[in-house]
Design a protein that fits this description.
Elements (H helix, E strand, L loop, with lengths): L2 H4 L12 E6 L2 E7 L5 H10 L2 H8 L8 H10 L4 E10 L2 E13 L4 E8 L8 H15 L4 E7 L3 H9 L3 E4 L6 E7 L13 H7 L5
Parallel strand pairs: 5-6
Antiparallel strand pairs: 1-2, 2-3, 3-4, 4-5, 6-8, 7-8
Helix pairs in contact: 5-7
The protein binds coenzyme A.
Length: 208
Amino acid sequence: MTAASIIGAPARPFQPRTDRLRLGAGLALDIRPLTAADAGTLQDHVRALSARSRHNRYLGGVNELSRTEIDRLLGGAGDTVFPLVADVLDGERRTMVGEAVYAIDRAAGAVEFALSVNEDWQGRGIGTALLDSIACRAAETSARLLHGETLRGNAPMLALAGKVGAAVRHHRGDPRLVRMERELVSAAVANVRDLTPCERLDLRRLAA
Ligand SMILES: CC(C)(COP(=O)(O)OP(=O)(O)OC[C@H]1O[C@@H](n2cnc3c(N)ncnc32)[C@H](O)[C@@H]1OP(=O)(O)O)[C@@H](O)C(=O)NCCC(=O)NCCS
């Protein structure tokens, strides 16, 4: 049996849509694919993170993204790595407040994620929305597992993982890290009390 037949329907291509969500206080949140026009703003976002947040996001002493990494995000990685950004909309004003990346391993039926939210906007549900948007997009590719890794002491990320129903497990390769895993269960087989990531996202969705 091939891996593709184990995970069911053939993987669909990347969904380049925007998720427009309610953020509260009259604000909306767009979660959308990164474009070439965002390269400078993405770099500003990374530079503006606190040293601790950057350390947590990149698992080391990164101050900014390299040109190679930006190019990789903007298409160098073909149809495997997908970068997203989160913009807050205040009337006509759009401000990038978060970013996330997910990478699809089609043979394994798994999607890996990483994300960050600007310090001033943390604690307002943006990390949850980014993770639900990734999980929903991942489920649409027929992936069965969403996973990520983070430093053991990263309390905000571990709390976020718990909130979205991800299990935190031992990391086999690096004792500094833990592995977060969330099964992507389709609506058809989900426990009726559990919402799928797409259903959770729909509760916050605004007309685009
Ligand atoms: C982890 C991170 C993305 C969370 O983003 P966020 O927008 O603040 O997340 P949310 O507002 O959706 O919060 C989700 C839950 O996390 C928990 N949480 C958020 N900030 C927290 C903090 N500072 N301390 C403890 N728990 C926290 C809360 O339980 C919250 O749920 P609740 O509001 O229902 O109580 C953000 O802290 C961040 O960018 N950190 C730096 C980068 C990083 O660590 N990335 C992870 C590596 S993959």
